[in-house]
Write a structure and sequence with these properties.
It contains nine helices and 13 strands. It is α+β, with helices and mostly antiparallel strands.
Length: 314
């Protein structure tokens, strides 16, 4: 598969650590020390999962070498929803008049983007699609509680969009070399590790330590799976990107791999945890830092639990 164009949208609003001091009784330094977050992106009053997703698509279109109406598969992959019936995939189809395309929604918490890649891979393999649009949009602040001392200070909002084709269509296309995912609902806290119950407490993370332990272990596991599939080593990867949940998780993954933090690209310091958009967003934002022919590995871990990795050659 090939990535033809990427786009993203990050709301202009920023919530600094100081905002949480009167609400949670913690200092800005306490938050930064434990999470690496200084500010987090926050959607505006009239912004939703859908509006941010459309903006991400709009950002990608100028880089696209074909008409968006040639897309025959639209996959929305995320866990925050504005409308769980009329999904973001259907909204984008209507916005751009993409007749004849399939429109589906898939969710696997913060692993959703890579699971969405697998859905695209499957449609391509079956011969049911040749050009796909994968969109991930998370409106965490719609569901989060700013007074939640365990996780209220973590969440950010953002969206990302990738156009993907079965065959190469332009010299600028990036090649997807491997896609790996695995469900982990049977380990640790599993389905109770992170929850989003809209009519109850919203989004919550009752046991952050359990999430931390399994995220560190299984992102490395996912990376090793992809490297094994490709028959390459860690030294063949130019840059690594993890799910942006906590800067300490990135540091622990780096430690396990025997690498310095300069091998990793991050945006958590400014945006916070933007959920399943985060790793793909980091790549889309930093393409100018990656040279032609270099390989980048993206690792994710999602509440539920689940993990995944995909490797792309720029």
């Amino acid at each position: 598969m090939y990535i033809n164009a990427t786009g993203y949208y990050v709301p202009t609003g920023r919530v600094p650590n100081e905002y949480f001091t009167p609400r949670m009784g913690v200092t800005p330094e306490w938050i930064e020390q434990r999470t690496g977050i200084r500010t987090r992106s926050r959607a505006g009053e009239n912004e939703t999962v859908d509006t941010m997703g459309v903006c991400a698509v709009e950002n990608a279109i100028p880089k696209l070498s074909y008409d968006i109406k040639n897309v025959d598969l639209i996959v929305a992959a995320h866990y925050c929803t504005y409308d769980s019936v009329a999904t973001l995939a259907h909204k984008v189809q209507r916005e751009y008049g993409i007749a004849g395309a399939k429109a589906v929604y898939v969710s696997s918490a913060c692993s959703s983007f890579i699971n969405g890649l697998e859905v695209v891979e499957g449609y391509f393999a079956m011969g049911k699609a040749t050009k796909a649009l994968l969109i991930c949009s998370e409106h965490n602040s719609y569901y989060s509680d700013d007074t939640d001392t365990k996780a209220g200070h973590l969440w950010g909002d953002a969206a990302v969009a990738y156009f993907i084709s079965k065959d190469k269509v332009a010299d600028s296309d990036m090649k997807i070399l491997d896609v790996f995912t695995e469900g982990l609902g049977h380990i640790g806290k599993g389905p109770e590790g992170v929850t989003l119950r809209p009519k109850e407490e919203g989004i919550s993370m009752p046991d952050g330590r359990d999430v931390f332990i399994h995220a560190c272990k299984n992102m490395v596991y996912s990376l090793n799976k992809s490297l094994g599939h490709l028959g390459i080593g860690l030294n063949d990867i130019s840059k690594l990107i993890t799910h942006q949940a906590n800067k300490r998780i990135v540091a622990q993954v780096a430690h396990q791999l025997g690498l310095g933090m300069d091998s990793f690209l991050n945006n958590i310091e400014e945006y916070g945890n933007t959920g399943s958009a985060s790793a793909a967003l980091v790549l889309a934002e930093n393409l100018d830092k990656i040279h032609k022919g270099e390989k980048v590995a993206l690792m994710v871990f999602g509440g539920g639990y689940s993990c995944g990795c995909f490797v792309v050659e720029v």
